[in-house]
Amino acid sequence: MSEPILTLDGLEKNFGALRVTDKVSLDVLPGEIHAVIGPNGAGKTTLIGQISGSLRPDKGRIVFAGHDVTQLSMDKRARAGLARSFQITTILPEFTARENVALAIQARQGHSFHFLKNVSKDEALNAEAGRYLTDLGLGNRADVHAGALSHGEKRSLEIAIALASEPKLLLLDEPMAGTGREETDRLVEILNRLKGRYAMMLVEHDMSAVFALADRISVLVYGAVVATGTPEEIRNDPKVREAYLGEEAA
Amino acid sequence: MTAVASDKQAVATPIFRARVLPAIILAAFALLPPLAMALDDSFLVFFAIRVMIFAIAAVSLALILGFGAMVSFGHAAYIGLGAYCVGILAENGIWEFYISLPVTLLVCGLFAAVTGAISLKTRGVYFIMITLAFGQMAFFTATSLSAYGGDDGLTIWGRTEVFGSSVLSDRTTFYYVVLAFLAGAWWLCATLVNSRFGRVLQGARQSEMRLQAIGIEPYTYRLVAFVIAGMLAGISGALLANAAEFVSPAYMTWHRSGDLIFMVVLGGLGSFAGAVLGATGYLVLEEVLSHVTEHWRLIFGPFLILVVLFARGGLMGLIPGGKRHE
């Protein structure tokens, strides 16, 4: 049961002479929220890129659901059950919210070489997409163009899209980025509700959100993990206080 | 409240775009021959055939350009290839449509598959340039076909036959055959963009990253669309060869590819009705202006620039309910 869903084993990535990922090893257990925090420039986004497949590590291994996925492309990893949200909102603005989610369901159901049937009249697909949207509080916004949604709604839509692919792991890249207090509280509440149903890796700047949600926290400084532990352990870790929380505590 | 109002509008608009407008346009084309007969204007029928043939090519380009953001600057190559398939087969004594049509589809499909497989590895300006290069390659190959007229082109002594009968030599029959091909190409493309395949194609235009993140690599879908568009443009070329009873490398110059892009943009991106209207508007304007003055390009050029600058939605933007979004 405690077999990790995701294991990073000695990941290294250099951009020229700059080491952005320095022997990162960590894992995510089933149903767990593992948060990764760190000051700006700590290499969080680069790490997310390597896990999701948009970047290749120079060294190390990524094992996902029992398979080595280090060399797999982003779309193959997604089909294996790794869903992600983006730090910069990445939705399909000309599609409605429902169409955005329906496309993720369609992708999960297999190839899309179906040429003749009108997909917008696929009631089963539309209904299923509607359920994910309702789950994320977007039920009454399903037929609005995604580009016309508010920023907070777009953030929720990204999560709905990720859930629609029925992932084994949710990779959330700063889901609260740019949202106001109220929206952040709503997203925290939503993620709390999903907690236990999905394993999640949460990269987030909002400390109150991280400490409210995470089962474990890893702290990344200059590309290396300086500490991993429960929120309580992290809060009391002198290395972390010095490297990261120190500036806020002071 | 406002959300409900805009939802209603969003429902009314697609029905007009998807059903009413195409029906009006196709009906107008269908009624043209009797009207031309009443007016005793045979040029009108001749001209409308040309318009419909280019409309087929424009519709096929609209599929990849408007819905897949693939700005192919070599699309006229397929018109030329389709035309040469008919011309070269005829030169060798093969006139039957059941041979020339499959050969056209096969040749254009193969050319699109090979050039598309390479071109689609690139994006943006590079894609434009590489499709232009492949188009020019086809053009220069045609000019060097000395056995089939080379630079001068090739006269075809007749029209494609249907099981030994030369029904297509009748202008009105040929007119309705071309119209049927236009309606068929239009229906096919409209069906494609509304399918699961079409959603992937349109999604990839908006964000390739988003598609990869949900597990779809758009490359193969783009390539299939590119091949379908190439085959449809090939059909328009085969029809053009029959209409003109002549084949020439001029069919596949890069100017022609530019004309096709302009037809699609003039009509309004993201709409097949727009592509048909754009082809019509473009050719009518070209015809009218060239009668007014021999320096008609001096008027045509600036006009095209004005359309691009100020009429963003193209002709579809001028039609009530024709716009893509409110």
UniProtKB/TrEMBL annotation, chain A:
CDD domains (UniProt xref): ABC_Mj1267_LivG_branched (cd03219)
A molecular-function term among this protein's GO annotations: ATP hydrolysis activity
PROSITE patterns in the cross-refs: ABC_TRANSPORTER_2 (PS50893)
UniProt KW keywords: ATP-binding, Nucleotide-binding, Transport
Metal-binding in keyword set: no
Pfam families with a match to the protein in the record: ABC_tran, BCA_ABC_TP_C
Annotated SMART domains: AAA (SM00382)
Protein name in UniProt: ATP-binding cassette domain-containing protein
Residue ranges of domain ABC transporter in the record: 6-247
GO cellular component: plasma membrane
Organism: Stappia sediminis
Tagged with keyword Phosphoprotein: no
TrEMBL record, chain B:
Residues spanning the membrane: 20-37, 43-65, 72-91, 97-118, 125-148, 174-198, 219-240, 260-285, 297-319
Coiled-coil annotated residue ranges, if any: none
Membrane topology label: Multi-pass membrane protein
Localisation: Cell membrane
Source organism of this protein record: Stappia sediminis
Pfam families named among the record's database cross-references: BPD_transp_2
Record PANTHER family: ABC TRANSPORTER ATP-BINDING PROTEIN (PTHR30482:SF17), HIGH-AFFINITY BRANCHED-CHAIN AMINO ACID TRANSPORT SYSTEM PERMEASE (PTHR30482)
Database matches in CDD domains: TM_PBP1_LivM_like
GO CC list: plasma membrane
UniProt keyword annotations, A-Z: Cell membrane, Membrane, Transmembrane, Transmembrane helix
GO MF annotation terms: branched-chain amino acid transmembrane transporter activity
Protein name per Swiss-Prot or TrEMBL: Branched-chain amino acid ABC transporter permease
InterPro entries registered for this protein in UniProt: ABC_transp_permease (IPR001851), LivM-like (IPR043428)
